[in-house]
């Protein structure tokens, strides 16, 4: 089953949105398989956002991510990557729909701002998810388990 890497950014932590954000993933039926609370180091964010390293806003983005603690997580489920991107909403706060995490909790997008405050990160493809999970978690920090709710979320196990 598919896994995605999600990280609550320093603004999400400071604004005390951690519980609310986690609840949205739980409500959707995704399953938590890894979570930690850390103050990330600059070199980790440089690796994490490596594909944006030649963009003008890159130093600002790295600085923003280092400004406070973050909550890296791994969520598992059917189409976990795509479904999580929908839960997050668009990158720019001006465009993201109400009902999404960014749509409900962020106001300053990044179109005219060097870093923005968009509360949360989510992997943009299955390949990036694998790379990001390996960057932030060791193998034994990702837990294999079967949720008691599984058969009420997926029909495939029906007899
Ligand atoms: P993440 O989930 O954080 O990866 O956001 P995203 O996938 O929606 O966007 P992307 O990976 O393209 O960019 C990563 C982060 O860089 C965004 O969340 C923004 O904080 C910032 N960013 C992206 N594009 C721009 C831009 O055009 N200008 C500025 N200033 N910042 C940007
Ligand atoms: Mg991205």
TrEMBL record:
Residues 1-144 form the Nucleoside diphosphate kinase-like domain. One of its GO terms (biological process) is CTP biosynthetic process. Its cofactor is Mg(2+). NCBIfam families: PRK00668.1. InterPro entries: NDK-like_dom, NDK-like_dom_sf, Nucleoside_diP_kinase, Nucleoside_diP_kinase_AS. This is Nucleoside diphosphate kinase. Its EC number is 2.7.4.6. Keywords: ATP-binding, Kinase, Nucleotide-binding, Transferase.
